[in-house]
Design a protein that fits this description.
The complex is a heterodimer. Chain A is α+β, with helices and mostly antiparallel strands. Helices cover 21% and strands 17% of the residues of chain A. In chain A, the strands form four sheets. In chain A, strands 5, 8, 9, 10, 11, 12, 13, 14, 15 and 16 form a ten-stranded mixed sheet that branches. Chain A is globular, with a radius of gyration of 27 Å. The termini of chain A are far apart. The mean pLDDT of chain A is 92. Chain B has one domain: Up-down Bundle (Fumarate Reductase Cytochrome B subunit), CATH 1.20.950.20. Chain B is built from seven helices and two strands. In chain B, helix 1 packs antiparallel against helix 2, helix 1 crosses helix 6 and helix 4 packs antiparallel against helix 6. Chain B starts with a strand and ends with a strand. Classes of the chains: A alpha+beta, B mainly alpha. At the A-B interface, helix 7 and helix 11 of A face helix 2, helix 3 and helix 6 of B.
Amino acid sequence: MAVTSNWCRCTSCHAGYGWKDKNFDFDKVENIDCLVCHDTTGTYKKFPTDCGYPPLKDKVFAGKKLFKAVNLSFVAQHVGPSTRESCGKCHFYSGGGDGVKRGDIDSTLIAPDKKLDVHMDAKGLNFTCATCHTTTAHEIDGRHYDTPAPGGLALAFPKYQGHRVRCESCHGLRPHRPKQKLFDWRLVKLNDHTDRVACQTCHIPLYARGRPTNIYWDWSTAGQFKDGKPIVKMGPLGRPVYHSKKGTLKWGKDLVPVYRWYNGTYSYVLPGEKVEAGPEPIEIIKPNGSPTDPKARIFPFKPHLGKQPYDPVNKTLIIPKLFGPKGSGAFWADHDWKAAAAAGMAAAGLPFSGEVTFVKTIYYHALSHMVAPKEDALKCGACHIRKGGRLADISGVYLPGRDRVPELDKIGATLCLIVLCLVTIHGLARIILAFKK
Amino acid sequence: MTQKLYLYSRFERFWHWSQAVLIIFLLLTGFEIHGSLEIFGYEKAYLYHIYVGVALVILTAFAIFWHLTTGAWRHYWPVKEKIPQICYYYAVGIFRGEPHPFEKRPDQKLNPLQRLAYLFLKLILFPLQFVTAFLLMSYQWWSYLGIEATFRKVALWHTAGAFAFLFFLIIHTYLTTTGRPWYNHIRGMVLGWEEV
């Protein structure tokens, strides 16, 4: 699944003003949409299928939702710094709906309480996205593309401007400080964790705390109809569990993350890259890092499982054309995976054998938002426990409470038991003899 | 024919019993941190373990000072005499009502086996636990201190030491009941006076 061949639908968010085909020029200044970020009126909205353009006259989307014509001069007269709402217009809805893709950001962050997000708390710190995602000349500091995960303290010097996105940038590498006491061993020990455990691991105890997030997406079942009409079956979380256009979906709320070593970079399966389909899901986005990597930390992730089209001859994931008019091969119009694959792969300039099967895939989404108040942070026992702890799958560290050397425990316990039996027998013998006399 | 001897001075008794309480507490909290028990919850177990451990270090510092200044360290000097007889006593003699082959005196309060056991405790086990504990608490500084170790190995030795302490505690507690009457040794360690 990709933007390619689906431009006019996807580019209502995937940035580009009028990105309607592969010839879009990203270097042209007039192709940058200023207003989508800097609108403060809340009236600047892009039409979902107009290649990143806003509606200039009243338009109805999918026969239901009315998009009012945008008054461009009014919006242009009310530009200002970005807000949670302006960033959220796209980022809260990534994946095609509220909270679908991310799991750690959704529309509840427009005005969250402290419980949901300590930093964005509308009645408290009231951070905007840009408070942490600082910028230099419109280059926004992001985390997961080129910035290593752990970092040091960044100060208010100009050279750090645009590089202050990490928790450590403000909180430092030994972030827990005693409020009243001069010294608190508990906090010293918590600080000791920062060499191997990311802040997020304890301080984002659950994800999808605002809206439900999508955790499973099986495209292989898409395209079924009942009496010629599309099927939309809603699930208990108010999200579709089956949708003719999308297939079978699973959703979750207040979910426990999975944990992986992560050095701040990912490995991606790129378009046209050969991947073997096996019983295990193909890792299309995988965090890099290992216990021997000094930059890696144990980090929380949302895993997303899916089943998506695959070319078994060329051994590549298929970029299908989903969106388009009837006859274009678009799956949402023609409901034919082979035609959609042919159209999509042609647009991407990639070979396609004509065969379509479906493979299991997984991607990992790092969780960095919706930081809970400290009283909700994970307690020691969440990981320091023999079985079933949060870090049960993490290797490469000795985790007290979870790890042991079983042989040593066996020898030690056996010796102690033997000597306990011996002294018991010895004592009983003395008692019996004493009674006999 | 019994006589009462003042064997254990006030500091010695205070030291012995507070050490006993601290070590038992360290065993409980330590094995909870190790994942073998569940009593206080991990966080409390961990913090208690540290506090009690520090208390034991302080107590031990006073005890070392006391032993050196009073000359009481001589009681732990190992001797060879009567070791076979004492072993025979615990295996056979004690059941026949024979007297203990060792005579307690204020200038030699500990029998040769006790001397060996306590000396082992003082020279090997306590240092092992203190050193490994210090290492476990300071692993962030190992690279600066030039210490090459793995957390896993140090934890393993600390656990082994804990088992050794538990092993000692079981035997020691039992042997305190082998006086005549059975509580004679315990009473001696509480009151200081023991009937010999």
